[in-house]
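Hi support team,

I've been running sequence recovery on a batch of backbones for a student project. Most finish fine, but this one hangs at about 90% for roughly twenty minutes before it completes. I'm not sure whether the input is malformed or the queue is just slow. I've pasted the structure tokens below so you can try to reproduce it. Let me know if you need the job ID as well.

Thanks,
M.K.
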């Protein structure tokens, strides 16, 4: 009798297991392709539109870009008019004579151009007509000593008339230790020293210095909140005769900082969510922040801050006992709490790359994809 051949149950189960593993691997590589595809499309369209706009400009007399006539919030910023005709030849149009066809990305974003530079950029549809942010964020250790609790300084430079930040994500390299979870509410874990340059509209020709503090928070039960700090800034408490640079009632701002600590081979993250209030979408002056994260702290506020809706809210006025000068904000004398380790450097030689991404008022949200602008990072060895 001819012997019949086939697969055993064990063999079938093994094949099914292998197929499941392969399906999982393929699914892992496919996830995120939507965002990557959109990003690649936007990059390609930007290059095509820039080249076409420059060609239109060179063939125009007088030289003009193909833009809509509405005024932007910042001089020279306009939306691109894809139906614009060439001034000297009304029979020639931006599309298709210069661009061939309308870009598919028009369904995703609004395309803008800076007439001062010819720079083409995309923005969220309906967002203010301002320049994209070109902020710079440098991060460095104060001493650079390894295996030590060392202060780290985050220097953020923001240009006038450019999009103001709404969210900044700062990546802490794996290998660092970020404590602070043991810190009681009100413990000072960092300090801000900030300056508005002489191009400010409040006291033109004079620098305006102000500052703030980063404090640990507590939950509703009075326990240390390991996942959130707050950066409290009183913008109208400054060294320039207390000139008001924010709306009355909105001078004290609580910018929340979401904390994800590095763990093993995983990087950590600090996410600063800026409280914008009634501020405009663009920076009103060149602004420089030096945000110092303490390696260790024994300081706790001697008087609670009056923070609107804040976890550290208390009686009294904001920044009672503080002083401000060109050196920044000075915190009142500490009340001798035990030293708390906050930020510890890796204990081996390597290049540790801090990185940062920013979302501003004009960066688009497409589906579930939030387009961040990458900020420069500063390696530390």
């Amino acid at each position: 009798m001819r012997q019949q051949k086939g697969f055993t149950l064990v063999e079938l189960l093994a094949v099914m297991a292998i197929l499941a593993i392969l399906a999982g691997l393929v699914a892992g590589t496919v996830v995120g392709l939507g965002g990557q595809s959109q990003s690649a499309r936007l990059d390609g369209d930007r290059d095509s539109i820039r080249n076409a706009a420059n060609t239109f400009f060179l063939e125009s007399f007088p030289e003009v870009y193909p833009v809509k006539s509405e005024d932007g919030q910042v001089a020279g910023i306009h939306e691109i008019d894809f139906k614009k005709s060439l001034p000297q030849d009304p029979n020639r149009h931006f599309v298709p004579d210069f661009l061939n066809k309308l870009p598919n990305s028009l369904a995703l974003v609004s395309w803008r151009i800076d007439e001062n530079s010819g720079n083409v950029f995309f923005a969220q549809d309906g967002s203010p007509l301002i320049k994209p942010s070109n902020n710079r964020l440098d991060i460095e250790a104060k001493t650079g000593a390894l295996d030590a609790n060392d202060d780290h300084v985050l220097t953020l430079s923001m240009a006038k008339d450019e999009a103001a930040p709404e969210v900044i994500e700062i990546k802490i390299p794996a290998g660092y230790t970020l404590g602070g979870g043991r810190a009681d509410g009100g413990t000072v874990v960092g300090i801000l020293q900030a300056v508005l340059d002489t191009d400010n509209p409040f006291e033109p020709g004079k620098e305006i210095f102000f500052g703030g503090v980063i404090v640990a928070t507590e939950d509703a039960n009075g326990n240390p909140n390991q996942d959130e700090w707050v950066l409290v800034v009183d913008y109208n408490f400054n060294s320039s005769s207390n000139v008001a640079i924010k709306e009355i009632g909105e001078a004290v701002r609580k910018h929340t900082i979401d904390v994800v600590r590095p763990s093993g081979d995983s990087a950590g993250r600090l996410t600063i969510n800026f409280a914008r209030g009634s501020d405009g979408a663009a920076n009103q002056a060149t602004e420089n922040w030096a945000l110092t994260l303490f390696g260790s702290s024994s300081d706790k506020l001697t008087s609670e801050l009056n923070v609107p809706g804040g976890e550290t809210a208390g009686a009294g006025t904001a920044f009672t006992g503080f002083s401000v000068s060109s050196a920044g904000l000075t915190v009142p004398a500490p009340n001798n709490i035990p030293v708390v380790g906050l930020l510890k450097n890796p204990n081996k030689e390597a290049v540790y790359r801090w990185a940062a991404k920013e979302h501003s008022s004009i960066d688009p949200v497409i589906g579930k994809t939030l387009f961040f602008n990458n900020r420069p990072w500063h390696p530390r060895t």
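--
Follow-up from support: It reproduced on our side and the slowdown came from queue contention, not your input. DSSP finds three helices and 26 strands in the chain. No action needed from you.
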